Amino acid sequence: MSLINVWFYEPNDDDKWLNTVVNRYDPPYSHCDIQFDNDKMASSVFRYENVYWRKRQFRKPGYKKITVSVSKEACAKAYELCETRAKEKYEFDAINMVLLPAAKWVGFERDKKTFCSKHCTEILQTAQLRAVEGAVPGQMTPTSLYNLLASSTVIHADSSPLAGLRIAVPSKQGL
Questions:
Q1: Structural Rg of the chain based on CA atoms
Q2: pLDDT digit string (tens) for 51-88?
Q3: What is the pTM (predicted TM-score) of this model?
Q4: Rounded to an integer, what distance in angstroms lies between the CA atom of residue 163 and that of residue 118?
Q5: Among positive and negative, which fits the CA dihedral 33, 38, 40, 42?
Q6: Would you say 67 and 5 are in contact if contact means Cβ atoms under 8 Å apart?
Q7: How far apart are the first and last CA of the chain?
């Protein structure tokens, strides 16, 4: 099994305007990122930037994580998708993010464009995570993704030398 960390950001009162707008639409989270536990490589997209792919530590106050467990094979596919999107310079999709409240009726696909919660949901679907199986990525907010993951969690014992309890969601292959 492999572990993927999904990070959720809750903005403070002095945060960027876009985080405040997203937070007011569907509180409490305004952003999310994916991080592979084995090497700490992370991926997401920020306002008016391209999808990033780099090692990252989430030290900024306001971040909370959920760790999910997936098969090694599915994790490798998700990892590759993150690398590919960064290489292909997927861009921030401001239009569909702004249309998110009406995504069921007016959302549409835009080539090589995404926003954080759509990107993270698609990565988790590629990792065959059962909790996001039926989710429509273009309709997901950071908070709705958090709620999906948090409502399907089970306790998973890490078998590494630094064993501890982790919150995990089983993949299609199970734990």
A1: 15
A2: 999 999 999 899 999 999 999 999 999 999 999 999 99
A3: 0.81
A4: 32
A5: negative
A6: yes
A7: 8
